[in-house]
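G., the chain you wanted modeled:
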Amino acid sequence: MQARQKRGLAISALGLTMMLLGGLSTAKFRYQIAPSRFIVNPMNIETNVDESRIVVGSMFAKVHVLDAEGRPQAHWQIPTEGGRFRLSLASDDRIHVGTRETGLLLEYDFSGELLSESEDSEAYERIGPEHELGFTAASGTQYLLEEGQIVRSRGEVETVLIDGFASHEAITLRMIGMGLSLFVGVLLVVGGIVSTGKPQT
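Predicted structure as tokens:
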């Protein structure tokens, strides 16, 4: 095999590798943006007493209920005109949401059904910011919000329950990266094939 052909095959192999990586990244991205798992900038978190349910607030005025392993159980959107919000568990089966802009106190069950709505201009401040970076359960288990991820920490063991997105920019950069990887991969494959030329007889 001539050196030119070897070089062309190496370029094609590199292109195929980039296409494969781009495809895997695309598959993961599609999984992350599935409606029930699409969490951008998680901003509040708390669990019920036995930690069987994890409640998370996120960008786009969404509330998510996860099970103990991070699997989605329910999600819904609060009134968007409320702007930023904070949430807490009022009891083991009630979620309180306080909105900043509209001064509302909303009460939901874990399925997302709105149980009550009242004007309460102090609800947002009363719920407070203490769960915006994480939450420590009575068992000592920590639930942390880190760069779009929801992480459970038990002693030395950390488990990523949800691998979300920190911002709109993070989503855009991921999409650009996937597109470039696939595009460059195709160019390399074509370039590799062309550069091999016809074998000389």
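The first strand starts at residue 44 and ends at 47.

Shout if anything looks off.
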